[in-house]
Amino acid sequence: MAVETPLKGNIGDSIRRKEDDRFIRGRGNYLDDIMLPGMLHMAIHRSPFAHARIKSINTEAASAVPGVIAVVTGALLAQHKLAWMPTLSGDTQAVLVTDKVRFQGQEVACVIATDPYVARDAAALIEVDYEVLPAVVSPQNALKPGAPLIRDEKEGQTNNHIYHWDAGDKAKTDEAFSKADRVVKLDTFYPRCHPSPLETCGIVADINSATGHATLYMTSQAPHAHRTLFAIVAGLPEQNIRIISPDIGGGFGNKVPIYPGYVVATAASLLIGKPVKWVEDRSENLISTGFARDFHMSGEMALSNEGRMLGLRVKLLSDNGAFYADAQPTKFKAGLFHIVTGSYDVAAAHVEADGAYTNKAPGGVAYRCSFRVTEASYLIERLVENAAIELKMDPADIRLKNFIQPDQFPYKSATGFEYDSGNYPKAMQVALDKLGYQELRKEQAEKRKKGELMGIGVASFTEVVGAGPGKQYDIAGLRMFDSAELRVHPTGKAILKLGVKSQGQGHETTFAQIVTEELGIPAADVEVQEGDTDNTPYGLGTYASRSTPVGGAATAMVSRKLREKAKKIAAHLLEASEADIEFDHGKFFVRGSPSKSKTIQDVAFAAYTNLPDGMEAGLEGVTYYDPPNMTYPFGTYLVVVDIDRGTGQVKVRRMVAVDDCGVRINPMVVEGQIHGGLTEGFGIAFMQLITFDEEGNCLGSNFTDYLLPTAWETPRFEMGETVTPSPHHPIGAKGVGESATVGSPAAFVNAVIDAVGHLGITNIDMPVTSDKVWEALNKVGAAE
Ligand code: CDP
User: Fold this and answer.
1) Which of 498, 547, 661 best tests ligand 1's pocket when mutated (most atoms within 8 Å of CB)?
2) For residue 735, how far is its CA from the centre of ligand 1 (angstroms)?
3) More exposed terminus of the chain, fewer Cβ within 10 Å: N or C?
């Protein structure tokens, strides 16, 4: 029985983001805003070559510059056993080079100075004598016999092969292919791109030489995990390390790995006894920190003549750069790429993945994606588009024919995932209706008669987010659970501390809303704190859309714990039996007489002033939540394009995005997340690429070469939603932060292919630039 209208800030309320007040006014506190007394500054000297043996390093000129305090080389770090560090994928990575450089932009030496500009000028004066070696810039060449050996320091490493891994059932898949009427093939490349957050990476390392305590202010998406790894790598006692991750200007996976700059700045602070700040510039961020994608994929789909998908066979070659440093759960060598069957009921699938070292920066981060799901989603959706062309079927119809049906959930995929819930036909229908699909198909047919190129791209996607369960998913051995600690103070105001860490997603608002829903304390009265390892419970951090499925669940669970205690206190205050107390939106009342009630604020006060006999004081608790399964958000994206035959220019006319992330905590925040993700997907599809010349020079190391979409070229997005709650999540929410970037690149590219497929053009690799489109048209005699 409801006793009053819901308080503002419940789940489903689009309240404004609390944190925006300080962000919009330029009052955020980012890493570079941190100034400590006596603080020194670090700059990095990086390799101009992709592959070169170091014969000698001369630091004399750099050391002589007034203001320079120290020059750190690999040799110095080696004396402290810090020249190499472990990566998140169980490989090793050079901190500063001791033998040879393995990618352009690799960290060779560091200068510590009293002023950041002095540090940079001095770093340029470091003289390194290189013996240049041939560079390996493609994984195909890396695996050829006789290719230069990149990781010659690794014992037993005789070639550039990193791993072989497979998932699914090979025999069953072979059988499905032997029975197929048709097989559709696609070789495609998902190019190397970069999360390029607005704020680059940095650290202020402050080691107190009197106490030995290390305070590390870091742009970290996973402060607790980083603290543990720092303790293990540097041999510092964990209780003496405090990582503080202040406001973060975007992470998108880029701030998950541990970078050499963090380690050197910390070592320098330890050796010198003063705080040391290092903040990378844009080019440093683009050439040396965690890239994303760089997957060469080959897919085959077995089909019946009626368009039923019978089997899927996928081969993948991953370009991992010089160190295998993918940020992903350790049990999965190619992340969660094996979710490649997507939204379809495919009985048999087999995925084989190989990874190769090349002379490029390491990375493989979950850039707005849950561990390589973006690549998987792209491949399956491009394959379905080509299957539709091959079978002359409508791209929406072939999908509707093959979707996992609502009554099939929970659904076990051929490669081992258990999808929790979904209603794919519904999401598709909402999108088709919103677009006016059938009318646009008629328009397309008319245009085609006149020789005009118009395309309608369809892509349906299924994400898999919210790692754990910890038994199956871990990062460097640390189980992927998460946590929430909630304290309600006597006046009914609360502090919620989390193990996750926002980089702009709005946690200060949305997690407060979960408390509002569960306890009735207005969101404005709930202060959310994250990112300080001394003051928040242990958690694995924010990436791969895991905060809401795991940290959000922990928040709901801890709130419920407190509600149980609050109920006991309310019974005491109302002089009733606990069994007769009901709770609704912040009020406890005796069943049947709602006028006799106590608010959560009354109860909070009583928790410190008027308790039942024998009860501990206070209203607080902590929950560590290990989810029983991932959550599976999904959606359908539709894109309409017009292509100019004379220039190859693709104009996105419309885009409709229908997402289902279960229960939306704050619909406005969700829409913002989707807008950002769609914009990034648009950039990847049409504009972005980090590539390398034959010598391994990085082409894409600044924002004139690596293009970010601006408001000028970004299309308008028309949004829609369906709501299919996750059955195992306490509030039915699924993660959403990444879905749009996962699902949209295929929709954009499929729109182009839909426009030109009838001319025999069935693939144009991303980024789909005007040049490439025009060339493809020219090849088939269709360019003007
Ligand atoms: O881990 P990350 O915060 O990047 O991703 P997420 O858990 O998908 O959440 C992104 C933002 O959207 C957070 O502020 C969430 O609380 C919010 N969200 C929501 O309001 N409702 C959902 N069903 C999912 C996310």
Assistant:
1) 547
2) 5
3) N
CA distance 579 to 590: 9
How far does residue 522's CA lie from ligand 1's centre (Å)?
19
- pLDDT above 90 for 4: no
Could you say which of 104, 106, 221, 328 is catalytic? 221
The whole-number pLDDT of residue 591 equals 94
Q: What is the DSSP letter of 465?
A: B
Query: Which residues touch 377 (CB under 8 Å, ≥6 apart)?
Result: 339, 342, 459, 461, 462, 463, 742, 743, 746
Whole-prediction pTM: 0.97
Tokens for 379, please give them: 């491949």
What is the spatial distance between Cα 622 and Cα 577, in angstroms, rounded to a whole number?
27
CB atoms within 10 A of CB 90: 14
For 288, other C-beta atoms within 10 Å of its C-beta total 26
From ligand 1's centre to the CA of 251, what distance in Å? 14
Amino acid (one-letter) located at 295: F
User: Is ligand 1 within 6 A of the CB of residue 729?
Assistant: no
Nearest ligand 1 atom, CA 736: 8
Would you say 658 and 431 are in contact if contact means Cβ atoms under 8 Å apart?
yes
Q: Determine the atom of ligand 1 nearest the C-alpha atom of 633.
A: 23
48 preceded by a cis bond (ω within 30 of 0): no
Cis peptide bond N-terminal to 745, omega within 30: no
- Confirm whether 368 is a catalytic residue: yes
> Which pLDDT score, from 0 to 100, does residue 425 have?
98
Q: Cα separation of 763 and 605, whole Å?
A: 66
> How many residues are listed for the chain in this entry?
784
Question: Is residue 339 within 6 Å of ligand 1 at its C-beta?
Answer: no
